[in-house]
Amino acid sequence: QVQLVESGGGSVQSGGSLRLSCVASAYTYSNRNMGWFRQAPGKEREGVAAIGSDGSTKYTDSVKGRFTISRDNAKNALYLQMDSLKPEDTAMYYCARGRSYRSTLSTADVIYWGQGTQVTVSS
Question: How far apart are CA 65 and CA 67, in angstroms?
Fold first, then answer.
C-alpha cells in the first residue's frame, strides 16, 4: 500500500524551529527523488526542498540557508529541519516521492503525496 505519513508540524513564533518527518512504505520510498512541498491558502503548491537518490539537494530560494533536507534510506524516512522560521513559511507541508532519481522541485515529477502537516509561524 502506498503511504507517506508526515509528522512534526505545529505553531511556532518567528525565528523558531521545527523538524518535519515523513515515513514511507518501502515500495513508496524506492530510493527516488523525495521532497517537501508546501501550499499556503490561495497559493499554488510549491517545491521547498528535494533530495535525490545520490543525496544531492535542491532548495527554493526563499528557504536556502534556513531549511535542511535529509533522508535515512535504512528507515525509509525523509526529514526537513526548518530554522529561522518566518510568517511567510506558514503553509501545509507535504512529503512527496517523485519518478526521477535526481533531485527536483517540480510538482510534475511527483507520483505520491502525503496527507500534509500544518506549519504556522506567528510574528
Answer: 6
Structural Rg of the chain based on CA atoms: 13
Place of cell 490561495: 42
Identity of the amino acid at 109: D
Phi and psi at 107, nearest 5°, equal -65, -20
55: pLDDT strictly greater than 90: yes
Rounded CA separation 78/59 (Å): 15
* CB 98 within 8 Å of CB 34: yes
* Mean predicted lDDT score pLDDT of the chain: 94
Burial 72-89 (b: 16+ CB within 10 A, else e): eeeebbbbbebeebeeeb
Provide the pLDDT for residue 111: 94
Q: Where are the alpha helices (DSSP H) in 22-79?
A: 26-29
Helix (H, G, I), strand (E, B) or coil at 76: coil
Q: How confident is the model at residue 3 (pLDDT cuts 50, 70, 90)?
A: confident
